[in-house]
Amino acid sequence: MTDRPAQILAVSGVLKPSPAGGRTLQLIEYAASLAGRSGRTRLCFVPTGEGDNPLALEWFGAAVGNDPAIEPSVLTLFTKPNVADVRAHLLAQDVLWIGGGSVVNLMAVWRAHGLPEILRECWQGGVVMAGQSAGSLCWHIGGPTDSFGDDLAPYANGLGWLPHSNGVHDDLDDQPRRTVYRRLIAEGALPEGYATEDGVGLHYVDGAFHEAVSVIPGKRAWFVSRDAGGYHEEEIVPRLI
Fold first, then answer.
1. Catalytic residue among 133, 136, 165, 214
2. Which one in 87, 183, 232, 233 has a CA-CA gap of 20 to 30 Å to 66?
3. What pLDDT score was predicted for residue 66?
């Protein structure tokens, strides 16, 4: 056991950088800071949701490769794990950053490799769990996903460590995620939960919502619940980091 809290940083990532700034790297660096290490922070990138796409690995290397505060590594599972002992490697990290992509495929591959049990051990041992998009949905019960096809559909078979649903990319004009997330909650297809706009992250401590943070001014998080009229939403103003 450890005296470090069990932390999760669940973010939408920055898909459309604004003129005011904001980069996914800033959110990765914030996740690294949550580990509270005095030396280099050991941070492992897990791109399962993108099928361990080489372009995702290149992106990660370019993003953190020159950061003197981070000691980076990668866990790939296709076609087999790239490390001899997955459990030992993950437990040795300070932060795990889970990439985006298909949350459905991510969860299926993780379960085939016994990752949920290992990841829970890491989380309870004080390793910061973090990630973007699918890497945000996975810690929750679930949320809207296009993993099944072009249309958004409810997915409710996530890890469920956080007893809420999650809506990501909640403000993008080219995706109806905001409307669909609220409709699914109103219909009871998803439980109440938290949604994040571009550049916003949800910080949970010991399984409870702690605060929202953002790397883009003016962005918001939302708590969405079901009510007699369909749904009710509460605005959460993030702390700018």
1. 133
2. 87
3. 86
